[in-house]
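Subject: Predicted fold for Lipoprotein, 77 residues

User T.R. writes:
Posting the sequence so we have a shared reference for the thread.
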Amino acid sequence: MKRIALLGAVATLAVGLSACKSGNPPAPPPPPPSPHAQFGAGFDTDFHVSSSAAPNPVKSGDVVPVDPTATPATNLH
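User M.O. replies:
I've generated the structure tokens; pasting them so everyone works from the same file.
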């Protein structure tokens, strides 16, 4: 009886191990996103621009005017 149980266990183990070999390795995980990607589209590209590249022209809204005589805001909520 022990012999039949042992043969059954060995056969089950052999079938189980043969099923694990599919021949195709698992796909590699995707590369992690760039830490600069969290700042919006195009930031990562602009961050890695060559230092000898021509600067981007200033557009309306790039520079916010500041009034030094303005009263500071006290309620920021």
